[in-house]
Amino acid sequence: MGRVIVGELNARRRAVLAIVVQEYIESAQPVGSRTVVEGYGLTVSSATIRNEMKALEERGYLTHPHTSAGRIPTDEGYRYFVEHLLPDGSLSEDDQLMIQHQFHQVGLEADQWAQLSAAVLAHTANMAALATPVRASQVRFKHIELVEVRQGLILLVLVLHQGIVKQQMLSVDGEVSQEELSRVSNQLNHLLAAKTGAEVAAESGELSDFGLRVIEVVQTIIERESRASTEHVYREGLSYILMQPEFASTEDAQQLVTVLEQPPLFSSVFEDVRQQDGVQILIGGDRAVEPLRDISLVLSPYGISSQATGVLGILGPIRMPYNRAIPLVRFVARVMSELVQDWYG
Q1: pLDDT tens per residue across all 345 residues of the chain
Q2: CA 217 distance to own-chain centroid
Q3: Of the candidates 306, 314, 305, 308, which has an alpha carbon nearest to the alpha carbon of residue 332?
Q4: Strand partners, 76
Q5: In what side-by-side order are the strands of the sheet with 153-160?
Q6: Residue 181 in contact with residue 148, Cβ under 8 Å?
Q7: What burial class does residue 215 get, using C-beta atoms within 10 Å of its C-beta: 0-12 exposed, 13-18 middle, 19+ buried?
Q8: Any idea what the Cα angle at residue 112 is, between residues 106 and 117, rounded to 5°?
Q9: Do the Cβ atoms of 319 and 294 come closer than 8 Å?
Q10: What are all long-range contacts of 253-256, with beta carbons under 8 Å and residues at least 24 apart?
């Protein structure tokens, strides 16, 4: 890639760069000056456009394969296009209705929301998609149910604020009536509402020995979830991205699959995304992580800032249709945020 010269582009060069990027995204073929002139009805000669393309190449926004006279965008060219030339777009009403309908069918577990969001993004964009379940800044108690399975055996069902449901069997000496189990459940639901593991441990109230034992179990589960460091990443749509010409070779395809099968690669990227607002575009991984250099990510946080957040987005070749990917990710993130707000409300 050529040296990038800092400075604003004039109107004609901006127009030429936008045309080259859009044409290359559509065709995956180098774009020649004749295509720019004839395809867009410009009132200048091909020679003039060639000069503008050369100037853009000198500034590092375009390059050309050795076997072709046409130009293709560089990472810097895509970046300038996304930041300065891409018009604000919105998702079509039909797409919005379709996506909202699918989310209305999903259950109440955050993992289901994340899995569905990845599937919706992949299917709608025809690209690979990633999503993480919502993660609370602190794991907190939400609800508990105690159910008698048989004499001497109790099922504890614990719901945490981020939608995680945990079940554990408790053995007890003698018989505990369902009426007593319901009474203890109600007492704990009132006493432990929205408390962290440490806050749960400090509670005793006027509990029976059985109630105190349940509190110990609840504290253990919450603290275990708080220590969990591996973030699950749902991945969908690998077949879509493998059909792109950038990954036509077996070697390139295998490298892409390897990247997608290593969630830790995305950990630092996701943490950065969580700290920002709105859709973020990482072109060529923005060089943050070397294995991501051949792909772009259109990502967004969702949820409630500083309380409970997840990350979702689209992964594809750098030659990605950003004009569709960005409003799609923005809309799905908004839908997911509304689900999280309803849950925490």
Answers
A1: 444 444 579 999 999 999 999 999 999 999 999 989 987 777 889 999 999 999 999 999 999 887 777 999 999 999 999 999 998 888 999 999 999 988 887 665 666 888 999 999 999 999 999 999 887 777 889 999 999 998 889 999 999 876 678 999 999 887 889 999 999 999 999 999 988 888 888 877 678 889 999 999 999 998 888 776 567 889 999 999 999 998 888 888 888 888 887 767 788 888 889 888 899 999 986 766 677 888 999 999 999 887 788 999 999 999 999 999 999 999 999 999 998 888 765
A2: 33
A3: 314
A4: none
A5: 141-150, 153-160, 165-171
A6: yes
A7: buried
A8: 85
A9: no
A10: 255/291, 255/294, 256/294, 256/295
CA–CA dist 344, 29 (Å, integer): 49
* AA identity, residue 328: L
Residue carrying the six token digits 């369902």: 178
Q: Locate 54 and state its tokens.
A: 């050369």
Instruction: Output DSSP code: residue 316.
Output: E
